[in-house]
Amino acid sequence: MKKTIIFFLLACTLSATSCLDKLPKDSIPEDEAMQSLSDAEQTMTGIYATLKSSALFSGALTLAPDLQTDLAYAVEGNTNVYGDIWNWNILATNSDVENVYAALYAVIGRCNFLLENADRVEATLSSQDDFDALDVYRGEAHFARALAYSELIKLFCKAYDPATAENELGVVLSTSYSKKAQAKRASLKASYELVLEDLKAAEDLIEYDTYNATYFTIGTVHSLFARVYLYMQNWDEAIAHATEVISNKVYSLANATTSISSTQSYFQYMWTDDSAYEVIWKVGFTVTSYGGALGTVFQNYDYTSYKPDYVPATSALNLYSNSDLRYNAYFKSTTTGYSHGLTWPMLIKYPGNTTFLKNYILGVNMPKVFRLAEQYLIRAEAYCEKGQYSQGAADITKLCMARYSSYGSTSLSEDSWRSTIEEEREKELYMEGFRLQDLKRWGLGFTRKSQDFTSAPGNTLKISADNPMFVWPIPQHELEAPGSEIQPNESNK
After folding, report:
1. In the predicted structure, residue 21 carries a pLDDT above the cut 70
2. Which of 173, 294, 381, 478 has the fewest CB atoms within 10 Å of its CB?
3. Do 171 and 156 form a contact (C-beta atoms < 8 A)?
4. End-to-end alpha-carbon separation of the chain, Å?
C-alpha cells in the first residue's frame, strides 16, 4: 500500500489537465493513508526522490534560465535542446516550461500530503523520540514546499517590489492535499508570505546541521531565508540569515589554492566529486538512483569526441582574470567533433561525478542547490544596498581569497558596488540557475554579439529589460483546465 500511495501522489500531480487537479478523494481510503511513522518516513523519502527529477535542479530548472541569458551560445549543428528558450521563443506549450511547472507542483503535492496526514500519525505515537522524528519530517516538508514555491515565483512572476507586490500576480497556492486549491493566482506578496511561513515552521522543527547534506538542515533553512529576503529587498533579514550560515563553523569555502591531491584543489574536487565543506545541501544521487545529467548539453561526449550544444559566451569568459582559479575549474579549451571544427573553452563545471564515470554514467553531478559562496554574495549585496560598502567589500574579499591564486582586497563604493557584485555572481554561480532572476530583479537587459560557429538568429539577440519573456508563460494547459481562473502572464500573449 505504501508504494501505491507514493506512485499515486506523483501521478495525480503530473497528470490530468492541471497540475493542481486530484483524482477522487477516496482514491486513497482514509483509513489507509499514512498511518504510521514508517509511512511518514517513506512519504518524506518520496519528496526527496521527486527533487531528483531532471525537470528540476539536475536539468531544466537549473540550466534553462541561464541558457536564456547572455552566458552561453548555441553551437551550429546542436541538437536544439533548450533551443526555443535560448532563442526567446518561449510558448506556453514549451515542454521544458511545462515540466518545470509540473515537477514543482509535484513536490508541493507530496508535501501537502505529508503535512495533512501528520496528525493521524501523531495520534499513534507514544515515545518522545518518535514525536521528534515526526516533527523533523514536518519541518522537512515545510522546507521542501517553501523551496518549490520560491522557484515557481522566481520563474513565473515579476521581480518583487515591496511597493507593488500586493497588486502583482503570484502563483496558485495550495496547502491542502484533500481539498482542491482554487485555480487562481494569489498576489506576489501573498505567495512570498507563504514561503516565509513555511520557512519559519521549518526553522522551529529542524535543528540538526551538517555540511554536504543530502537532507534538509537548519543551514538549508537559513540559506533559503537569505535568498528569499534578498529577492524581497529585505536587506536586514537577508543579512541576518546569511550571517547565521556564514558564522556557522560547520561550513567553510572550498579553497582553490589548497590541494586535496597532486592534481586537484579542494574547489575542483567539489565539482568532480560533489563533496565539500562549502556545500550546504545537494540533491543526493547514487549510481542506481539519479536524475538528469547537467553536463550533457555542454559536452555531448560519445567516447570519441565532444559536440557541445552550448559553449560559454566570450563576455563571460573575459570576466575571469589570469589569477582567478575558477576559470580552469569551470572551462577547458577543446576542439569539438563538429565538421566546422570549433575550438573553444568548453564548460566542464559539471564533468560527471567520479564515481558515476567509473560506472560509465556520463555528465551526472549532484546539484549543489545551496553553497556557502552564495551566502557571501547575498550578504555583500544586502550590505551594499544599505550603503555599508566596507562590510560588503569584506565579504567579496573573503570569497575571492578562496578563489584566486593571489588576491589583495576588494574596495566598493556607491558607484562601483553593483557592477562588482554582478560580475562576482556571474563568475561564481555560472550555470547554476541564477542569471535570469538576477537580470530581472536588477532591471537589466543584454545583447549577444555573434561568435564563430554559433546559431543565428539567437547569437545576435538584443533583449531589453522590459521584455515580458523574463517572466515565463503559465503553461497553456493550466489556463485551459476546466474551472481554471488562472491569469496569464504577459508572455502568454
Report:
1. no
2. 173
3. yes
4. 45
